[in-house]
Amino acid sequence: MFEIRLHSRGGQGGVTAAKLMALAAFRDGKYATAAPFYGAERRGAPIVSFIRIDDKPIKIYSQIHNPDLVVVLDPSIIDLVNVFDGLKPDGKVLINATEVPAKAAGYKVSLVDLTGIALKINLIVAGSPILNTPVIGALAKMGLFSRESASAAIKEMFSDERNYQAALMAFEELV
Amino acid sequence: MLTISTGNNAVAAAVRQAIPAVVAAYPITPQTEIVEQIANYVTNGSLKSKYIPVESEHSAMAACIGASITGIRTFTATSSHGLLYMHEMVNWAAGARLPIVMANVNRALGPGWNVWAEHTDSLQARDTGWLQVYVATVQEAYDATIMAFRIAEDRRVYLPVMINLDGFSLSHITQQLEESEIGDFIPPLMLDHAIDTKAPAGYGCMTPSTDYFRIRYDIERSMRDSVAVIRETEDAFATKFGRKYSWTENYRCEDAEVLVLSMGTLGKEAEVAVDILRDEGVKAGAMRVRWIRPFPELDLGDRELVVIDRNYSFGFGGILASSIRAKTGRQCYNVIAGIGGQEVTYNDIAGFIRNRRIGEETWFGVDA
């Protein structure tokens, strides 16, 4: 089983990103669950979602304590929450940033400028850049699911072509 | 069609297949996306129902009662405080023998203010005459909702059915879902005691004790008859759609020496705990109780019992454990866990089984 913990802020689309990840994995023929952890929902509050991907049905509903991958949609959360808590020794981190945050030193960090991508193509809703579709492109590049399934998932959930375009840009940008 | 869905949307998708003539619901907190999605279906024309947004859960059930008594199919959904607020009408629906179907998203009751999973809300309605089933996967939420209409509307039952799904842990999780065209799986509703709207008439409604007593007895008789109807319906569902359900979901129980019993999503998590214990050489099995009304005959043998209750009856004990003791005369180790959405992992459940103290009760994370 591959376990992903996604950190974001309310309003950034973390819940939808988790759902897209599950859908892309599902389109790869895998079993997947996406479970957002709800608290007092409000814009800007740190929120966390749990995504599991496996070859067999997933029976676990509890939170992910030892993730294989941590995804951080807003790097400022790193100062508030220990996003690396319980990360497996060989676990990876994907951060929406242009430089590695100080606290991330020593971890296997990949960076992608999701905010920059969204702003570049004007993928903005209610004043906020949309991060949930570009992050799917970055995760496809990391091998979480196939590029085809990522594309299918985005097109299934969004009709605006810019979502797919943003994912493609993130896919190409991530080294 | 194979897709992914939340528990909430799976219930809505099942309701779209059942095509109730009326859906009445209070659309605001603590309501869930179930009725939001149904409202979407009605708006986009993919569900031909009359959708009535009402000003309270009490009115939601009252509207369902008023519609159902004319002999048409009805549905509503609620959660936690909403279910409590409609409690008077919940009793009325069963007493009037109306086959209303309701989904309840199990959430804790305030105060303190808490929105997470717990079964105390619906278990407070267990003596109302409603049939109650507790589900553990998105697929099961869908399947149980479809079956609920057929069971409720069966002439041998004519009682309302409540489908219960754990707040957030099931209502909001995304899993895979196979949606089925149900065809004629739910026969058209023929309500023998429907009022005649073409010849409306009112009679004195006072019911003397002798008749009232009989009416109550009839509810219990139908509740007992519902056992056969549930079995038939679940068998027919398995034949038609290939997914088999029963009173309990049993996992590695055949040769088990200790059973962990629970309801809802904790029952799935318990299966992972059983695998861990089996690897340690402990012959454990998991039994997830699906129906709480009517209460099932449980095949427990002489195995040791660990019962997890995500609920509590103050001054008495965990409700599932109490029910099992009362029904079978067996002692158990009762773990009160998961209340108010308390995090309970498969490792925790494995610990409950390893450290069982038969005859005792423990509040997980509170008791020393």
From TrEMBL, chain A:
It is an enzyme of class 1 (oxidoreductase). Pfam families: POR. Residues 10-171 form the Pyruvate/ketoisovalerate oxidoreductase catalytic domain. GO terms for molecular function: pyruvate synthase activity. Keywords: Oxidoreductase, Pyruvate. It catalyses: 2 oxidized [2Fe-2S]-[ferredoxin] + pyruvate + CoA = 2 reduced [2Fe-2S]-[ferredoxin] + acetyl-CoA + CO2 + H(+). Its EC number is 1.2.7.1. This is pyruvate synthase. It comes from Methanospirillum stamsii.
TrEMBL record, chain B:
The keyword Repeat does not apply. GO terms for biological process: organic acid metabolic process; response to oxidative stress; sulfur compound biosynthetic process. Residues 14-233 form the Pyruvate flavodoxin/ferredoxin oxidoreductase pyrimidine binding domain. SUPFAM superfamilies: Thiamin diphosphate-binding fold (THDP-binding), TK C-terminal domain-like. Residues 256-349 form the Pyruvate:ferredoxin oxidoreductase core domain. Keywords: Oxidoreductase, Pyruvate. It comes from the Archaea. InterPro entries: PFOR_II (IPR033412), Pyruvate:ferred/Flavod_OxRd (IPR050722), Pyrv_Fd/Flavodoxin_OxRdtase_N (IPR002880), THDP-binding (IPR029061), Transketo_C/PFOR_II (IPR009014). Pfam families: PFOR_II (PF17147), POR_N (PF01855). One of its GO terms (molecular function) is oxidoreductase activity. Heterotetramer of one alpha, one beta, one delta and one gamma chain. This is Pyruvate ferredoxin oxidoreductase. It comes from Methanospirillum stamsii.
